[in-house]
Design goal:
The chain has about 180 residues and is of the alpha+beta class. The chain is built from 2 helices and 12 strands. It is about 20% helix and about 35% strand.
Length: about 180
């Protein structure tokens, strides 16, 4: 049984949530997001907030129960505060720069520059003294996380010298080099 799914999702002031069938739409100060719940899940609006329950007691329904409630919480969090991921670039000559408003250009030791197209709803900023801090922000948690993961995948941190792109605060387990 899902202990997460049992509690209703509270709706804070300044946020409106509407239900139309299985689709939950949330509007807030930062924008509007929606999520379509699976058919195994029943969603209803109550005075306490949005209640999520299972239609049947099957294993797939129980698996989707807590996930659906968490998705609705992520919608509410996104339209009120938004999400942000910060990446750091480590390495000599490694840097990032914005190319217009819809592309991020990263120089990470290849013979060519890696260019990432920025999707709608996501904002990317480059900062730091040597252009080594990348901040990805937006209201959709999935889009922000995916964009940050794609930027990091251009040159993940390597374990010997620690060069590459890493999340801020990420610990890299360093390996010892060759012994003479």
């Amino acid at each position: 049984m899902s202990r997460i799914g049992k509690r209703p999702v509270p709706i804070p002031a300044g946020v409106t949530a509407t239900l139309s069938g299985q689709k939950v739409t949330v509007k807030g100060p930062k924008g509007e997001l929606s999520f379509s719940c699976p058919d195994e899940i029943a969603v209803e609006k109550t005075p306490a907030g949005i209640a999520v329950s299972t239609r049947t007691d099957s294993k797939p329904a129980r698996a989707l129960w807590g996930m659906s409630r968490t998705q609705i919480i992520n919608l509410i969090e996104g339209v009120t505060n938004g999400y942000s991921q910060t990446l750091e670039i480590h390495g000599v000559g490694f840097r990032a720069a914005m190319r217009g408003k819809d592309a991020l250009q990263v120089q990470v030791g290849f013979s060519h520059d890696v260019v990432h197209k920025i999707p709608t709803g996501v904002e990317v900023k480059v900062g730091g003294a040597k252009q080594e801090i990348i901040t990805v922000s937006g209201i959709d948690k999935q889009k922000v996380g995916q964009m940050a993961a794609e930027i990091r995948a251009a040159r993940p941190p390597e374990p010997y010298q620690g060069k590459g792109i890493r999340y801020q605060g990420e610990y890299i387990l360093r390996k010892e080099g060759k012994k003479k």
